[in-house]
Amino acid sequence: MTIYDVIFYLFAAVTVVSAFFTVTIRNIVQSAFFLMLTLFGAAGLYVLLGSDFVAIVQLVVYIGGIVIILLFGVMLTNKITSVDIKTGTMQLLPASIGVGLFAGFLIAVVTNTKWIQIDNPIPSTTLASLGNTLMNEYVIAFELLGIILLIALVGAASLARK
């Protein structure tokens, strides 16, 4: 077992365990912190896969933006930090059916897949080539996406104001 394997299993364990606590813990603030740890573990797995851009986007957008905004929203709301999430009844039967279907699908895919060694792997893209592609070939789509995100931000602000 190499150090790469140890680091992979460490990040995988952190991701799975913190995801489990994210959905099972009853305190919403602690659940948000476990969500942040889950997203950090996923970013670590992206780094191990060689996807540096996706890992950085995961850190900046999800951990740096969404989870922090979620935590500020929860903590600035009156009396919500001590509120427990109401999960009185566990839906055991639908969850068991869903897990069984997923396990059956996974077993069917793994047993019927022919593993082929690819001679020419996908060429690695760097951040410089991605930036050049976005600013040269897809600049119109990039600008339209920015305008759509601005419209969504203004709409969310106007809805929250009412």
What does it look like?
The protein is an all-alpha fold and 162 residues long. The chain is built from 6 helices and no strands. It has helices spanning 3-24, 28-48, 52-76, 92-112, 127-136, 139-161. Helix 1 (3-24) runs antiparallel to helix 2. The longest helix has 25 residues, at 52-76. It is extended and about 45 Å long. The model has no long low-confidence stretch (mean pLDDT 79).
Tell me the layout of helices and strands.
Layout: H1 3-24, H2 28-48, H3 52-76, H4 92-112, H5 127-136, H6 139-161
Helix pairs in contact: 1-2, 2-3
Number of strands: 0
Query: Structural class of the helix and strand makeup?
Result: mainly alpha
Name the helicity range: over 70%
The number of helical elements comes to 6
Low-confidence stretches: none
* Residue fraction in strands: under 5%
The SSE order reads: HHHHHH
Sheet with most strands: none
Please, what is the average pLDDT?
79
| Integer-rounded radius of gyration | 21 Å
Molecular shape: extended
Measure the end-to-end span.
Answer: 58 Å
